[in-house]
Write a structure and sequence with these properties.
By secondary structure, the chain is mostly helical. 78% of the residues lie in helices and 0% in strands. The chain is built from 8 helices and no strands. The longest helix is centred in the first third of the chain and has 28 residues. The radius of gyration is 20 Å and the shape is globular. The N and C termini lie far apart (47 Å). The mean pLDDT is 92.
Length: 169
Amino acid sequence: MFVRFLRENVYASYLLTILRLYLGWVWFEAGFKKISAGFDVSGFLRGAVEKAVGEHPAVQPWWADFINGFALPNAPLFNFLVPWGEFLVGLGLILGTFTTFAVWMGALMNFSYLFSGTTSTNPEMVLMEIIILVAGFNGAKIGIDRWLIPLLRKKFTRKKSILRNAAEV
């Protein structure tokens, strides 16, 4: 019943828009600050690895291995991906453009931060992101996706039918 409300109700689309705009602003602001002030992820990553010790570590050993084996050696890549990822997720959510993809990427980043032992606002953001994901297209109706998604569906569906007809000849 609640899922149906989220996915189909016009009033839910207004509430989802408010939620989407809030999340978008949080991501946008975080990314913009990192882009404009400079960002170095290596300190955060080293701190996460330090939390992977003890009987009940805040960071699981498999995640610390990932950080040591991949993330830290590629810190310059993450110095680019993190701020621009946050910025673009925020922009997508604010504009309502590729909303589902933006929310998925936001949730991926939130889970990465949680895996790294940072709680902060990440759990509440994940909950909001899940609500928007469950709502599907209703979470993007008040935004650019209202026009963009049907246009893309029409364009790619038409190409598919043209290819199918050409293959039959």
